[in-house]
């Protein structure tokens, strides 16, 4: 995430200040050291660590910071944008998401199951583009959910340093408690925990949560509408293509969306109708440095990566050079004395 911002900023000729999350600063400090060893002049890339309120907020409002590029929660993005607005400072924001994955009745169920769990449980669900809302056609729902549970139970949950680990710990105790609170609230509201929803029995320490699948969800539930940022997948069924699109778009967010179907014309219709900045067809989460990345609605402003990412750090200037020897001729020339 740091290089998505640092690389185009430096390529555009800017100096940059990188403020990493206080929970994940080490790799950003390593990046700065690599740049120093590579010969980047002192002061071109600067890393400022600390909490958002102490280290991040002053940069948003500082008059000598010309542009802000932020990745994080929608709530914090609103604060960044508000602070920057006082100086009419340009911002690009890559914020939260509650992305849908739609599985139609003609999908290969095992392939769809693997992409569905990857799309939500990859990086322990701690990724803004996670396709954490599953919309599955009612005719295949029962069979597909059985497969999802089987695939989920086969995920190795362990210390990430262990060979074959596919699901590690949540980043902090606070986030762990937040996710568990969402799960508990969903149960109290009448949802069904089909799989997971608790600490793995073989892990007594660390903030581990089993891959969780929740059914019997209504569109008004917080588990369906709010970004969880953890390994939690919510499930609803649909009957028609139009209903699937309507449910997919019924969200304040618009970062990613995925569709699984052998009917490519249907996939194309979905791609055009869904209100998101990124669409995956028969997959979920692949990302390419050449392609634009960013969201609509409350998922953000602007695009990163590719030529679009470079444009974030450039300002277009118009230069007009009058080359004719003829005078403008709009005004009458004064008489010579």
Tell me the layout of helices and strands.
Layout: H1 2-11, E1 16-18, H2 26-37, E2 45-47, H3 52-61, E3 68-71, H4 74-85, E4 91-94, E5 100-103, H5 109-121, E6 133-137, H6 141-153, H7 173-188, E7 192-195, E8 212-215, H8 222-225, E9 232-238, H9 241-249, E10 253-254, E11 256-260, H10 264-273, E12 278-281, E13 296-297, E14 300-301, H11 306-311
Parallel strand pairs: 1-2, 3-4, 5-6, 5-11, 6-9, 8-9, 11-12
Antiparallel strand pairs: 4-14, 7-8, 10-13
Describe this protein's structure:
The protein is of the alpha/beta class and 337 residues long. The chain has two domains: 1-95 and 299-312, Aldehyde Dehydrogenase, Chain A, domain 1; 100-281, Aldehyde Dehydrogenase, Chain A, domain 2 (3-Layer(aba) Sandwich). Helices cover 34% and strands 16% of the residues. It has eleven helices and 14 strands. The chain has helices spanning 2-11, 26-37, 52-61, 74-85, 109-121, 141-153, 173-188, 222-225, 241-249, 264-273, 306-311, and strands at residues 16-18, 45-47, 68-71, 91-94, 100-103, 133-137, 192-195, 212-215, 232-238, 253-254, 256-260, 278-281, 296-297, 300-301. The strands form four sheets. A seven-stranded mixed beta sheet has the order 7-8-9-6-5-11-12, with helices on both faces. It is globular and about 95 Å long. The active site is at residue 94. Pathway: Amine and polyamine biosynthesis; betaine biosynthesis via choline pathway; betaine from betaine aldehyde: step 1/1. InterPro entries: Ald_DH/histidinol_DH, Ald_DH_C, Ald_DH_CS_CYS, Ald_DH_CS_GLU, Ald_DH_N, Aldehyde_DH_dom.
